[in-house]
Amino acid sequence: MKILKPDSVANNINPEIRSYLSFAPYYKHLQKRIENPNEQFSNFYKYVILKLEENPELLEPLNNLQIIEKHEDLFQLIASTIFPFSTDNDLQYFALSTPYKFEIFFYSNSFAEYFCPDENGFITFPPERPFDQIQSEYIMMAYRLVFRKFFNFELRVPERRTNRWVDKTTGLPRYSRIHVDESFIDVKFTGDLPSFPGSLIDQNTGSIIDPVRLQKEFSLSGFSFEGFIIRRSIVDVTVEECVTQVKNALIEMQSDKPQPGYEKLRSAVETLIGLKNVEVSISPFLKLNEKFVFYNKYSGRSILLKGLTTLEEKEEAYNQLALLLSKEKKTLYISNLQNPDHDLKNFPLSPYLKNSLDYCYLVAPLFNNDELIGMMEAASPTVGVLNNETLKKLEPVYSFFEMACRYYISQFKNEVESLILEKFTALLPVVEWKFREKTWAYLRQKEKDSAGEIGMISFDQIYPLYGAIDVKDSSTTRSHCYQKDIIDHLNLVESTLHQLNVSLENPLKESLQTLLIKNNDIKQKVEQSLLSEDEVKVNEFLQNEVIPFFNQLSLIKRTDLSPLTHYFESVDSGSGHLNKNRHDFDESIGKINSTISQYLEFEQEKIQQYYPHYFEKFRTDGVEYNIYMGESFTPHKTFDFLILKRIQLWQLLVMAEITRLTNKLEKSIPIPLRTTQLVLVYNKPICISFRADERRFDVEGQESVRFEILKKRIDKVRVKHTGERLTKPGTIAIVYSQSREIVDYDEYFQTLKNNQILSGDKEMLELEDVQSISGLKAIRVKVNL
């Protein structure tokens, strides 16, 4: 038996390790064993001791390799005391070597096969176990022994504990757990022992902080190691190692470069099931709007589908496979695809495997909470090798297959949702399904033509409802608040100038008088009326004349500055204006709008449960909203006029409640504002489409455009021959064009009166013509406040 060792020319061997083969530690160990009167193998151990005593050179540090090679029989005897008997030849992987050096003097055939020694005993290190890695591990182990013996401190040292070899029968790799035994090593030191390198060791965890510095500052050259080290396989861990490889392969498959991951998955599965040349595929079952959809990006590697040529064939097969696995909920396999008289007729997937060159095929469904989420396929060129026994061997990695499918499904959903947000906008569920379908069609087209367009999304035969809650005279009230703030500000300027005039000395009094006169002129003009240009003039006067003058006065020490202090404390620090009235107005409008919006959102979410619809609202000085409904939104849910009647009644009820809410609010807001309520009845279906440039829905077609024009023109419409505004606080105005549109509204009014929501008689009104619209009529009903 040749001694195995690295080629010193090809490998950089660390000269610091002074290590010698010796059987003295092992000899001492056997002597202690035979001292025990209960030792069962005492006679055998005495025989081994006798043999060692007959060869005393083995009890001294050995350097002569010829002495080692001539004692092979004795080494076999020693090995029999160390290595247990195993029925698995591959687990007879063992080696005895010089301490912390790769000098192997006794070893198993499987060990030699792994390192492939040449005729001189120089070994070849495989890529996964380079010499530098092994030597680094040995150095750290040497440090651990030194610290354990001389400092009573246990270092934490990372070690490779798994061995890989090739099974001679299958030609596939297998793995075993490696045990490294340092029981038969003595370490000695001559001279003064170095101090404990505390700064290089984490004493809480036992880890080495900086291995490179440790080797420089705490050299091993002063220590010598005598004895031998044992490496041996103790248990087969092929399944455990393959599970880790499958997990890592699936992660790599989810990267931008998935091909290496697929190869690693195939290799790991082959080892796990013990079969070579087995093709493996993991495919998710993707759903869009509760329908299975084939997406080449995620399922294009399917074994069954890749043999089909057209997209239509793949989609059909994909759906058939999904429905079949959902129903059967079990593994399907065929043992011989090339034998037409075998079980092809009874195998439901055989038409899709007609082009396969494999002989054996298996597909197993993958589930998540009883929902089909994917499949695992396997194919082999060998007849009959894939069956239920194969699946049993794959059980340890099934959860990772399912995890991968869940990931692919999540990625697909994210891809669709991201594209919807990019191309469209955040959507209500009632229309989101159609955006998904359009997005999915775009993704499919994109695989063929990268320049494809996503196209227009539209909904036909949609019935609209429109409502508007407006703050009465909001523009006039806002203008009045702005006017009052400006007058208050000019009064403050006047008061400040009069106070400063008392203590001010010439020559600044003349400038002050000029400002007073100009201030008074502007105030008189503003008190009569406030135009847009007046606001500009006031701002210019304050910024360009008043403030510079006040800043100039603040530099005069003898002047009483208290009027200036009062002025600057009174105006807003940011804008430099008095804003109390406009602030009160904004607060009042904001409170009204938020109250209306919250109530509308709450109520429409409830009516969504009755019948799904598209709802949108807009905030101005008040709130406008649109409701669209029809079977185009809900193709799996029937729409009829009974539903429309229910929603129309709900709309009147909501408008009445909003009238009550804003009426109560009038007493608690700074400026007592009131609201008016308007409803447009339009019983003709319209078409709406999504405008990608504006990210919103808009109407399409002549009838639809007429509805939009009506909405815009009726907000300030007046009653014919009276000049009175249609909308009034405390009422709901219902605008319509033709009498047949409101035939059901008498029933709604009576229902609401019976419930004390409406009061009094309805008013039937004709309306003045508005631009391009004539013949409008209205009903006005009073809300019981």
Q: What integer value in Å does the Rg equal?
A: 45 Å
The average pLDDT is 85
Largest sheet: 9 strands, mixed
Global morphology: elongated
What distance separates the N and C termini?
A: 108 Å
Number of helices: 23
* Percent range for β-strand residues: 15-25%
- Total number of β-strand segments? 25
Description:
The protein has 785 residues and is an alpha+beta fold. It folds into 4 domains: 18-236, no CATH class; 240-422, Beta-Lactamase (2-Layer Sandwich), CATH 3.30.450; 474-576, no CATH class; 584-783, no CATH class. The chain is 44% helix and 19% strand. Strands 17, 18, 19, 20, 21, 22, 23, 24 and 25 form a 9-stranded mixed β-sheet that branches. It has a 5-stranded antiparallel β-sheet with strand order 3-2-10-5-4, with helices on both faces. The longest helix has 31 residues, at 580-610.
